[in-house]
Q: What sequence folds into this?
């Protein structure tokens, strides 16, 4: 039920008829040189829970048939050349059990959609280093279980919305290296998971063994974590155009390990 060919030098198309693998639960082809489009037949793997195709040379759109992957928990497509972000999110939000979605370094220069319904089960969402345009979309507020949110290294503009403070499970937030303006919303000092000493972090991916990568700068390949609780509780807002002062209430965030506000226009 597990097919793991990660970290090889495999190339060419993923030319497999997956209809003959109905009980496949894990497919890991990450860190190879596969090219071309995603195989549509993969949607027939109704028991697929973990799919990692990161760090390949894959192109094209996410097939609409992938909405049928209702058992999918973990999906990493980072470091490829996929297009049509709006279409991808529209398809994947129908994977109702999806808890981890890593789309870093795809959809270059596209607009981040603002009309999604959200992901009800999502805990980790990474969409960094895509040069995306637009504002921070309000549908993220519907991702009530979200713990880790990475939108770094894009071209997002506008202010940080005050509703961010309503995301009760959020403990890792990275909006660094964008074009965000305005002040730090006071609601950010009220993130429940960073205020309460009783908050617990889910061991979300401890059983998958598949690494998560969070890109911290353009020259590095990324920081690697193997489970959600490995992420240090952090707020990264560096290298934007944020102004105003730092709220004294930041001191209420007793669980916060990292606060990076560097390279902004903060005064006081």
A:
């Amino acid at each position: 039920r597990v097919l793991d060919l990660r970290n090889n030098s495999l190339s060419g198309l993923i030319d497999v008829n997956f209809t003959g693998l109905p009980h496949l639960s894990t497919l890991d082809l990450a860190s190879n040189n596969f090219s071309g489009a995603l195989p549509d037949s993969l949607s027939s793997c109704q028991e697929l829970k973990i799919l990692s195709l990161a760090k390949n040379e894959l192109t094209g759109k996410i097939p609409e048939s992938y909405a049928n992957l209702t058992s999918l928990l973990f999906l990493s497509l980072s470091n490829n050349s996929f297009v049509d972000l709006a279409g991808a999110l529209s398809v994947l939000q129908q994977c109702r059990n999806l808890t981890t979605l890593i789309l870093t370094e795809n959809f270059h220069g596209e607009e981040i959609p603002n009309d999604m319904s959200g992901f009800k089960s999502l805990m980790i969402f990474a969409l960094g280093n895509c040069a995306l345009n637009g504002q921070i979309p309000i549908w993220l507020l519907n991702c009530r279980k979200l713990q880790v949110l990475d939108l770094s290294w894009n071209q997002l503009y506008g202010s940080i919305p005050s509703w961010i403070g309503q995301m009760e499970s959020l403990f890792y937030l990275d909006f660094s290296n964008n074009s965000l303006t305005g002040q730090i919303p006071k609601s950010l000092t009220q993130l429940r998971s960073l205020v309460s000493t009783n908050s617990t972090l889910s061991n979300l991916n401890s059983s998958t063994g598949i690494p998560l990568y969070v890109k911290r700068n353009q020259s590095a390949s990324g920081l690697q974590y193997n489970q959600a609780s490995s992420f240090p509780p952090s707020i990264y807002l560096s290298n934007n155009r944020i102004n105003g002062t730092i709220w004294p209430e930041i001191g209420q965030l007793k669980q916060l390990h990292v606060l990076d506000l560097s390279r902004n226009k903060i005064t006081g």
User: Anything to note?
Assistant: Residues 2-266 form a domain with the Leucine-rich repeat, LRR (right-handed beta-alpha superhelix) fold (CATH 3.80.10.10). DSSP finds two helices and 21 strands in the chain. Residues 203-207 have pLDDT under 50 and may be disordered. The first helix runs from residue 85 to 92.
